[in-house]
Amino acid sequence: MSEIYTQNQNKVERLEALLKLSELLNSAQDTSYILNALLAECLKYIKGGDAGIIFLYNEEEQLLEVRSYVGFDSEVEKVKLKPDESMTGITFTSRKPLLFSSYEEVQRAVATMEKANREIIKNTYENLFPRIHSTICCPLIFREKCLGVIVVDNFKKESPLNEDDLEFLRVISIQAAIAVNNALNYEKEIQNNRNLQRYNKIIEKQRNEFEYSAVLHNKLTTMVLEGCSAQDIIHELSVLIDRDIIILDLFFNIRNYVLERSVPLKILKRNRASISQKLSNLSSTVYKIPETDYNLFLNPIVVSKDTLGWLGVISRNPLTSEKDKITLERGSTILALELLKINEIQEIEQKLKGDFLDNLILSYDYSYVGKLCRQYGYNTEKEHQIMVLQLMNTSMKKKDGNLYNPEFIYCQKRLNEYLSRALLTCFPNTISIIKGHNIIFILELNKITLSNLTKKSLEKILFNDQVKSILPRSHKTISAGISDGFADIASFKNSYNNAMQALKIGSQLYQGEFIVFYEELEIKKILLNNPPEVLRDFVEKTLGNLLNYSNASRNEFLVTLLTYIKSNGNWSFTKEKLNIHGNTLSYRLKRIEEILGLDLEDYNHRLKVQLALEMMEIM
């Protein structure tokens, strides 16, 4: 009688639990809350239930995943079961409540579990509960769709799970499946709303960025159309991003800059070589500026895959805001167009100047040439001199007779710009023309500028560090041939040819950089008209004994002789030039005369030596 009473009492309690759980499930929309409450109530009213897990099916992964558990370590969250895998997978596939009433039944089902999952389960509870004596599994089915599985395990043999427990779990699962489905749908709705809000923010952000980009593009384009320079453009960009900016050309010179907030120009110039090592034609790079806590963020300025230079932003930290990125992107585009425009204008200007030069050399219509002279500021009433500057790397290739190496062409333009400005300070109204691999400078002369037209003054202009920084690394020398002065425009062709001849002869006489005035070459021009073997014979007859002298003093004697002859036999000048004692000089001159069998005081003997030395320079 008492047993019947106890059974009835259990039924009443379970019915009350079902009503309570039904109210609980219907009052909540949070999936985690529903699953946790469901599992807790199940274990409360199932006497043999020692632990439980609720799996929900992930349709994308096609796996059963742990969403709630009691009696297990958190390691169990890693378990993911395939349909048909273990007791849970078998229940999911069959869509029927299943009772595994003995240890042997449980083990047969667990044997279908993959090794990785078995290891997790073992680590989770086998040390605490050596055996699962019985298990009940019940699918959560809503409208013929299985949402997941409730699993209850029994570890204590004296209270095994039975059919009543399975029926109780089945009844609970019907209401639970409805609640779980509603909660999952609610979760999806919340996630969809979140996604919608996120997409709206993205769209709003993109719209604002597009509007800013369009306004900025129009502003910068207007600046270019109104004649603003690259310097004006980078100043505007600097204000917009509140950073200092520089532009580097293809030879790593700082062409334009705005440095109002960060580092001084001298530090950047001092580190120009190391900056150049960080530059890339394809992507952005970062250079840590020495002696400061600033970085230089470098972006190539590109048009049609050709790099025209680099835009550098000086900042402690990377530019992360989209506004700054858009500003630099649009700025680089406009700067590329501006630099391209400058190059094209310069090319047109140089072509017209080239035509002007051809007319000066070839035309016999002096009235037409006179019009061109007035157009280009050539004063036909003034005296002029022509300087031909050669910048030619013999390794550079030609195509149809014209240089096409982009670096060489760019270097030539930059050199022309720099030297034109430098020469204008000494020779007002200088006209510069690029012709082939040469740069032609037409120098206007007057009483003041004539004093500037010396080899020493021109060397300061042509052979300084600034010029070397413009030249490409593959070619660090330039040479110049300079004509005689001329006043009549009809003499232009002859003077031009003289400058070219001076350049040609200079290249035969010297290695590396040189400046040769045509007037210096009168004797050498005459000598060059003779066959080389005639010159060699004369040198051998005149200086052969000294050239073949085996004594260690040979080189001293040669230097002494050359200095003495070039000073026109000036004993005092030679002594000071060589920084030797007078007695030493007298001894050397006497020994030279003995070796050569000549008298250096004799005009004819000294003339022969002078001619032989001139010949040695051109041999």
Provide an overview of this structure.
This protein has four domains: 189 residues, 2-Layer Sandwich (Beta-Lactamase), CATH 3.30.450.40; 116 residues, Beta-Lactamase; 149 residues, 2-Layer Sandwich (Alpha-Beta Plaits); 89 residues, PucR C-terminal helix-turn-helix domain (Arc Repressor Mutant, subunit A). The radius of gyration is 48 Å and the shape is elongated. Strand 7 and strand 8 form a beta hairpin. It has 619 residues and is an alpha+beta fold. It contains 22 helices and 18 strands. The strands form four sheets. The protein has a six-stranded antiparallel β-sheet, sandwiched between helices. The longest helix has 63 residues. Pfam families: GAF_2 (PF13185), GGDEF_2 (PF17853), HTH_30 (PF13556). InterPro entries: CdaR-like_regulators, CdaR_GGDEF, GAF, GAF-like_dom_sf, PucR_C-HTH_dom, PucR_C-HTH_sf. This is GAF domain-containing protein. Belongs to the CdaR family. It comes from Thermanaerosceptrum fracticalcis.
